[in-house]
C-alpha cells in the first residue's frame, strides 16, 4: 500500500487557511480558488482521509492543533529529507519507538516497502501516518493527551515504554547545543525521551538545522547520549566541526 503522497498546491492552500483561520468554508474556498463547491468538497474529503482535517457542515476544521500545523510548514523539505534517511535505518521485522514531533512523525511515511515493522509511539501524528500502511503494527503508549504537541505523556505512557525493549528509538527536540544538549519546552516530553533512550539499543535524534543553537525550558539529555544525530545540510560547517570534535556522531543529509 502506498503511503500518503505529497500535498498538492491546492491542498496546501486549504491547510494554510486552516492554520490561519481555524476553520474553512466550502463556499469561501470555492470563490477564492475559482472552483466549484463540488471540487472543494472532494478536496476536503481527500484531506480528511489523509488525517489533516475534519469535515463539518459547510466546511472543515483542523484535525490537529494549530501549533502543529505551523511547525509542519517550517522547513518541510529538510524535515522530509531527515525522516527519509531515518527510515532507511529501519529493517524488516524491527521494533522501534518513535517519539512525538513533526520530523519524527514523518518517518512513518517513509517506511513503505518495509515488512513486519512494529512501531511504539506516544504520537497521534505518527499514528495518523502509520495507520495507512498495513505492514506496520502500531502500539500506542496511552497517557494524557497534549494537544499542542499531539502527544501522550505522563505515568501511563512512561509505564508502557518501561515494559518494552526495541532496537531503535527516534526522538526529537525543540533545541540542541553542545553545552546544553537536547532541550524541550514540555517537561513531560523530556521524560518520554529519557524512557525511550533507556529501552532502546540505538537512539537517534532527528532535528532540522533550524533547531541548532536554540534552548528550551527543560533539559533532556546531553548530545553524547545520542548514538546518532540526523540533521540537514543547513547546519553550518563550524557547528558541524564543533560537534564532531566533541565526539558527537552527526550526519547531515
List keywords for this structure.
7-stranded parallel sheet, Rossmann fold, 253 residues, 3-stranded antiparallel sheet, alpha/beta, 2 domains
Report on the architecture of this protein.
With 253 residues, this protein is an alpha/beta fold. It has two domains: 55 residues, Winged helix-like DNA-binding domain superfamily/Winged helix DNA-binding domain (Arc Repressor Mutant, subunit A, Orthogonal Bundle); 181 residues, 3-Layer(aba) Sandwich (Rossmann fold), CATH 3.40.50.1360. The chain is 38% helix and 23% strand. The protein is built from ten helices and 15 strands. The protein has a seven-stranded parallel beta sheet, sandwiched between helices. A hairpin with a 4-residue loop joins strand 7 and strand 8. Helix 1 crosses helix 4 and helix 8 packs parallel to helix 9.
Amino acid at each position: 500500500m502506498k503511503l500518503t503522497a505529497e500535498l498538492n498546491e491546492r491542498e496546501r492552500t486549504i491547510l494554510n487557511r486552516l492554520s490561519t483561520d481555524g476553520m474553512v468554508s466550502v463556499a469561501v474556498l470555492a470563490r477564492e480558488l475559482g472552483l466549484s463547491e463540488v471540487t472543494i468538497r472532494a478536496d476536503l474529503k481527500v484531506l480528511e482521509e489523509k488525517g489533516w482535517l475534519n469535515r463539518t457542515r459547510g466546511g472543515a476544521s483542523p484535525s490537529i492543533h494549530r501549533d502543529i500545523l505551523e511547525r509542519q510548514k517550517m522547513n518541510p523539505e529538510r524535515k522530509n529529507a531527515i525522516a527519509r534517511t531515518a527510515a532507511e535505518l529501519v529493517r524488516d521485522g524491527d521494533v522501534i519507538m518513535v517519539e512525538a514531533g513533526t520530523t519524527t512523525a514523518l518517518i512513518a511515511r517513509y517506511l513503505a516497502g518495509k515488512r513486519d515493522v512494529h512501531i511504539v509511539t506516544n504520537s497521534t501524528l505518527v499514528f495518523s501516518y502509520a495507520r495507512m500502511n498495513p505492514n506496520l503494527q502500531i502500539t500506542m503508549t496511552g497517557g494524557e493527551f497534549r494537544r499542542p504537541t499531539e502527544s501522550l505523556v505522563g505515568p501511563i505512557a512512561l509505564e508502557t515504554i518501561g515494559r518494552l525493549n526495541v532496537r531503535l528509538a527516534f526522538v526529537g527536540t525543540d533545541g540542541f547545543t553542545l553545552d546544553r544538549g537536547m532541550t524541550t519546552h514540555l517537561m513531560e516530553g523530556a521524560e518520554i525521551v529519557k524512557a525511550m533512550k533507556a529501552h532502546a539499543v540505538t537512539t537517534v535524534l532527528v532535528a532540522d538545522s533550524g533547531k541548532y543553537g536554540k534552548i528550551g525550558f527543560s533539559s533532556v539529555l546531553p548530545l553524547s547520549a545520542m548514538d546518532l544525530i540526523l540533521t540537514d545540510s543547513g547546519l553550518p560547517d563550524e557547528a558541524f566541526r564543533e560537534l564532531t570534535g566533541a565526539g558527537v556522531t552527526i550526519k547531515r543529509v
